[in-house]
Specification:
TIM Barrel, binds D-xylitol-5-phosphate, binds zinc ion
């Protein structure tokens, strides 16, 4: 299995975003995880299209956009145009899941569905054949720096089993509370794309941190 680390921009120094991105690239981070929150789907507000456009100009890294917004279908085309390579949206949002997946793909981006900690694995099985990635939230969406919810691990395992059973090529991403203790647990259960915010940005040696999260050190 190929493992990837996606760095959560929420934990970066936003006034120095360009040098932060250069540091991530230099230290072997694979993707940038861009959390968009609208204050309706979650109780927090972050950044959106204009910031993503600027980030796109600053890097060739894969931009992994996580939409925590009430009606993602309305915006996916604009996020794809702004430079998103992968767009994740929540199955718990008000948009129709299949129609939103199709809209992302026809806008030229890779499509992912995200599920909150209490959403059952079975609820998304029917969409797996359409997806490039499935995002299992390992904390309640809304804030960086929270603790990993262990009950989500079995869900990761079930989803990976289903993907294998169906012979699909679909990444499994985990997001929230990923650190040196929880990353091995998530990998063992079948996650291969690991989002890291606070752990990565707090690390004294970022390149070592990336290796540890991927299980290479
Ligand atoms: C939470 C976000 C996460 C978060 C991860 O709603 O989706 O991407 O920023 O941050 P850490 O790694 O600090 O939990
Ligand atoms: Zn996220």
């Amino acid at each position: 299995m190929n493992y990837y680390v996606s760095a959560s921009v929420l934990s970066a120094d936003l006034l120095n975003i360009k040098s932060e991105i250069e540091k991530l690239e230099k230290n072997g981070v694979d993707m940038l995880h861009f959390d968009v929150m609208d204050g309706i789907f979650v109780n927090n507000i972050t950044y959106g299209l204009p910031v993503l456009e600027q980030v796109r100009k600053a890097t060739d890294m894969t931009l992994d956009v996580h939409l925590m917004i009430a009606d993602p279908a309305k915006y996916v085309e604009r996020f794809a145009k702004a430079g998103a390579d992968i767009i994740s949206f929540h199955s718990e949002s008000q948009s129709d899941t299949l129609a939103t997946i199709r809209a992302i793909k026809s806008a030229g981006a890779k499509a992912a569905v995200a599920i909150k900690p209490n959403t059952p694995a079975e609820s998304i099985y029917e969409f797996l054949p359409e997806l490039d990635m499935l995002l299992v939230m390992t904390v309640e969406p809304g804030f960086g720096g929270q603790s990993f919810i262990s009950s989500t691990v079995d869900k990761v395992r079930l989803i990976r089993q289903k993907i294998e059973e169906l012979h699909l090529d679909c990444d499994v991403q985990v997001d929230g509370g990923i650190n040196y203790e929880t990353a091995p647990v998530a990998r063992e259960a079948g996650a291969n794309v690991l989002v890291s915010g606070s752990c990565l940005f707090k690390a004294e040696d970022m390149s070592e941190a990336v290796k540890k999260i991927k299980g290479e050190a």
